[in-house]
Amino acid sequence: MELTFTKMHGIGNDVVVIDGRQRDIALTADQARLIADRNFGIGCDQIMLITASDDADIGLKIYNNDGSESGACGNGTRCVADLVLDPDDTGKLTMDSTGGMLEAWRDGAMIAVDMGVPGLNWQDIPLAHEADTLHVDLGHDGLPPAVMVNMGNPHAVHLVDDAEAIDLAVTGPVLEHHPIFPERANIEFAHPLGENRLRMRVWERGAGITIACGTGACATLVAAARRGIIGREADIVLDGGVLNITWREDDDRIIMRGPSTAVFSGSMTLPDQVRARP
């Protein structure tokens, strides 16, 4: 199968965008892993597959680089919107994703995405059993209880004294696979940098350490606001750059604003059967 694609990134969270509106494209987990492989494929954190939709302007299917499907990718959604919207388009693009209906629009030089209402109940995350999502002790030495948020995918946000001091490569995979998460989870660590500004680092479910995570930035703002550490709008400083997140009071919806960059376009011959590497 011959695939055309556009390689893009949102503050370093790199994605491969495939437009499947004119043809029916179904990727297996093995094929998704090959596309995302940085040595044997194109290389990316996530794959964004645009599809036709009867309910929205476009449909959206998201794959992590381990081949698993994801309900949401905020940075990737901005990239898709930037690609699909005309440069001078002032309207909104509706996207039907696995995690729910999304809207995006141009906001000056940025792309804004309505990420929806965060899930805050333990069933929404989901967790394996009932718990207070504002304080969930994952039993990891030295870490405070996490705040649980669902942004179309599950997040566990740890508000710590110094996010830079966390060994993500060691702590991240352990917490991602904690038994309380039946669907695994994205793991964030954050600390305040001052008024309306937070520093965040992330271990993404199915992707590992990434330099930016849009849904993680949204979840971090929600977690810090619920704890009373910050207000309902803040800049989230990630390794790859800064995202502006607003948690609106009137309808509880999350608006994410940030840049999008197209890197290159190309084509790839994707085998029907992907041979497993030793």
Folded structure, characterized:
The structure is a single chain. The chain is mostly beta strands. It has 2 domains: 125 residues, Diaminopimelate Epimerase, Chain A, domain 1; 106 residues, Roll (Diaminopimelate Epimerase, Chain A, domain 1). It contains 4 helices and 17 strands. The chain has a 17-stranded mixed β-sheet that branches. The longest helix is centred in the last third of the chain and has 13 residues.
Major beta sheet summary: 17 strands, mixed
As a percent range, the share of strand residues is 35-45%
SS element count, helices = 4
Mind telling me which CATH architecture of the largest domain this is? Roll
Number of strands: 17
Tell me the number of structural domains.
Answer: 2
C-alpha end-to-end distance:
24 Å
Q: Tell me, what is the CATH class of the largest domain?
A: Alpha Beta
> Which stretches of 5+ consecutive residues score pLDDT under 50?
none
The CATH topology name of the largest domain reads: Diaminopimelate Epimerase, Chain A, domain 1
SSE run: EEHEEEHEEEEEHEEEHEEEE
Overall geometry: globular
Secondary structural class: mainly beta
CATH superfamily descriptor of the largest domain: Diaminopimelate Epimerase, Chain A, domain 1
Question: Could you give the topology of this structure?
Answer:
Elements: E1 2-10, E2 13-19, H1 29-36, E3 46-51, E4 58-64, E5 69-70, H2 74-84, E6 93-97, E7 100-107, E8 110-116, E9 147-150, E10 154-159, H3 168-176, E11 186-194, E12 197-204, E13 208-210, H4 214-226, E14 233-238, E15 241-247, E16 254-258, E17 261-269
Parallel strand pairs: 2-3, 4-6, 10-11, 12-14
Antiparallel strand pairs: 1-2, 1-17, 3-4, 4-5, 6-7, 7-8, 8-16, 9-10, 11-12, 12-13, 14-15, 15-16
